[in-house]
Design brief:
The chain is an all-alpha fold. Helices cover 76% and strands 0% of the residues. The chain has 4 helices and no strands. Helix 1 (2-41) runs antiparallel to helix 4 (132-161), helix 2 (48-69) runs parallel beside helix 4 (132-161) and helix 3 runs antiparallel to helix 4. The longest helix is centred in the N-terminal third of the chain and has 40 residues, at 2-41. The radius of gyration is 20 Å and the shape is elongated.
Length: 167
């Protein structure tokens, strides 16, 4: 079952990254035309700043799952460079557990915020774009990250539990 969840989260993180790339491309094109309009014609795109703000939040969360999947987050190995493999694995289990719990709480709060944006019909000031699609996208992407972290935690525990488990 763990391998099925891992496969599903890999697929989901790939889709999230592609979706993020499309949003980033759209944001880049919009920003280009906004800058050209502002400086060449003294006519910027109305609402470009608020759209960019929404896009930036979404892009960050869409890339987090893939970064987590690749174990690409920044880590400091000050404590682990001079310890044995079992101690290193024990510390990895602790780090994976803390990360999973922290991101699970973050994800829960993002779902609550998303629900509030829906309930309160929160919209942007200029174009009156509903905020809830961005909020729900961030919450869903963070949930995928939680699943990835949980799978990594279980894999690390499994490696530690294996006789002679080494990093």
């Amino acid at each position: 079952m763990l391998s099925q969840i891992d496969t599903a989260t890999r697929r989901a993180s790939n889709w999230l990254v592609w979706f993020g790339a499309i949003i980033l491309a759209a944001m880049t094109v919009m920003t280009f035309f906004d800058v050209v309009g502002r400086y060449a014609f003294n006519s910027p795109i109305v609402g470009a700043v608020e759209t960019t703000e929404l896009f930036m939040g979404v892009i960050v969360y869409l890339g987090m799952a893939m970064t987590t999947q690749m174990r690409g987050h920044i880590s400091v190995d000050l404590l682990t460079t001079n310890v044995g493999p079992r101690t290193r694995l024990t510390l990895a289990v602790f780090a994976d557990l803390v990360s999973t719990v922290f991101v699970a709480f973050l994800s829960r709060e993002l779902w609550r915020v998303a629900r509030r944006t829906w309930d309160n019909n929160l919209i942007t000031q200029i174009w009156e774009i509903p905020v809830y699609p961005a909020a729900y996208t961030m919450a869903a992407a963070s949930s995928v990250m939680v699943l990835i972290l949980f799978c990594q935690l279980l894999a690390t525990i499994g490696e530690l539990a294996r006789p002679g488990g080494n990093a």
